[in-house]
């Protein structure tokens, strides 16, 4: 069901040709950043939950099951809200394309590449999405300001990710160049998906999430039936719980929050959650799986938070803080 930009963005101003989504002029408050943190928490849970689920459920079946569980969960909420999934071809073309570049293709690429690339370098390579999003925004789409501050934030976040995972992980890079290039292409796909996702801002975020997940799960279901024969599987109770939890928490709520953040914060700021997911994911892995705490976690966390701050806090806010530090009185005429 179509929904206006203003309804999604709160007090945002109307869109303009140079600002198609209207996000560049939208005032940001603590609720917007709380949504970003919630999105990072939802998606960071994928690390330990996937490890538990794949212990006894093969990957295609796992991805299809979690997507369909998430879609059915969101459809039930939409029904209770009195909303319906659109039935026109235009909407479903958008849902299908978005799901393909945001989930289906990049997930399959990374899953294949992980057969040849260890987990630590994979996390570092997959964390380059904000950098690619910046380059595409700056060099091609120009749909929102791509400042040097945001680029510096992306680089700091990537450095923090490498420190948390372990700098020795970088020593394993280039051992299988083709597989590593596949991972980088997958992150480019993720970056394109955050930009293309702005075209879905006319729809309620829950509608977009439900439609995309329903398409993705249905698309993979026959593949899972033919290749993995799920009726012959004997999944553990833990794997089933992980699949259901990931479907509802990571996929349903996560994708809905993702489109809400796109509408409120724009693509570059929304991509900053990718760095927040690293320390949160490490913490969940320690809590749920009993993994050891990385020795460089504190330093990496400082770099990650500095990078996220540079990517998310508006430029004019930095100016206000600098003025306060210098003892300057805010100018009411400037809106401070």
Low-confidence stretches: 1-25, 332-336
Largest sheet: none
How many domains make up the coordinates?
1
Radius of gyration of CA atoms, rounded to a whole number: 20 Å
Distance between the termini: 38 Å
Report on the structure:
The protein has 336 residues and is mainly alpha-helical. The protein has one domain. It has 15 helices and no strands. It has helices at residues 5-9, 30-44, 46-53, 59-81, 89-113, 119-126, 129-141, 148-165, 177-196, 205-227, 237-265, 267-270, 273-289, 297-312, 315-325. The radius of gyration is 20 Å and the shape is globular. Mean pLDDT is 78; it is low at 1-25 and 332-336. It is found in: Membrane. Residues 1-23 are annotated as: Disordered. The chain crosses the membrane at residues 60-80, 92-113, 119-141, 148-171, 177-200, 207-227, 239-262. It holds the Pfam family EamA. This is Permease of the drug/metabolite transporter (DMT) superfamily.
Layout of strands and helices, then pairs:
Layout: H1 5-9, H2 30-44, H3 46-53, H4 59-81, H5 89-113, H6 119-126, H7 129-141, H8 148-165, H9 177-196, H10 205-227, H11 237-265, H12 267-270, H13 273-289, H14 297-312, H15 315-325
Describe this structure in a few short sentences.
With 336 residues, this protein is mostly helical. The protein is built from 15 helices and no strands.
Question: What keyword list fits this structure?
Answer:
single chain, 336 residues, mainly alpha, 15 helices, disordered N terminus, disordered C terminus
